[in-house]
Amino acid sequence: MRIFVTGASGFVGGAATKALVDVGHQITAMSRSEKSDAVIRELGAEPVRCDLETVSSEHIGDAEIILHSAAFVEAWGPRDAWYRYNVLGTQTMLVAAQASGVQRFIHIGTEAAICRGQHVRNADETVPLAPDSPYPYCATKAQAEQLVRRANRDEAFETIVLRPRFIWGPGDTTLLPMVEAMAKSGKWMWIDDGRAMTSTTHIDNLVHAILLALTNGRAGEAYFILDDGTISLKDMIGGMAEARGLSLPDKSISSGVADFVGRTSEKIWRLLHLQSDPPLTAHAAMVMSRDCTLIGAKAEKDLGYRSIVSRSDGLAAL
Predict the structure, then answer these.
(1) SS3 of 301, please?
(2) For this structure, is 305 an active site residue?
(3) Inter-residue contact 45 to 28 (CB < 8 Å)
(4) Would the pLDDT of 155 be above 90?
(5) Which of 85, 135, 137, 305 is catalytic?
(6) If exposure means fewest CB atoms within 10 Å of the residue's CB, which of 37, 54, 126, 289 is most exposed?
(7) Is residue 154 over pLDDT 90?
(8) How far is 253 from 257, CA to CA, in rounded Å?
């Protein structure tokens, strides 16, 4: 198949691009710089110079499928960054895809799209999206998913959303490096002793789901893609740190204090136009203190998905 990938120089897009190339697909990928060009070529794909604001049908060419994994996932940034990249960028991709005659649009979503700050327990895909979430990342990923699913035209233009939770594994460019940096600097601190329970998604399991979604799944639907079972954040993050030879301290603050510090820090940083990241954001405080356990039965039924890497094996491999 001819596949156009966004976010190919990142964690998810890069792992997916390599896997797609390895099984014989012809991959072109969005690239914004010479550095990204080099990464994409190393993966075996062909870079196409464009971005989420300028991409057109000419860039997509004769691709049959689009894998849209690019997104603004930073914990902090300009006020409009999440909306520009996650919502407007997805809209631009959809318009370009339809104009170029793409058959299927696979969107990498997230469980964050249903989060308003509540505990999420044993949730399936019937839980409503949260486009009005107070957290910009959650709100804009929900809005982007709405655009993707509304664009579905069944056989004329099929769209599918994959929703991983807590993506981890080899090649992680976000979570594990952050944990390592905070552990080494002595700044790591748990919220509510890390008791919050979570579902997780190993990168190899997500890539497996992407390969299945090339041909499987019901158009216009969203699917949670998960590892087997659930785990506490303390056991999960502590296990990741231990795999790197690090020991995280037991220091902890309450979720109430964390929420207050996150909200207050953001207000101060915005007010003073500070360029650095706040010590804690409201979104990070929420993620680290709320349960988020999900049900993946729909992906098993429609995609034929089963996790191929267990959490214990994945942690050992780190």
Answers:
(1) helix
(2) no
(3) yes
(4) no
(5) 137
(6) 126
(7) no
(8) 7
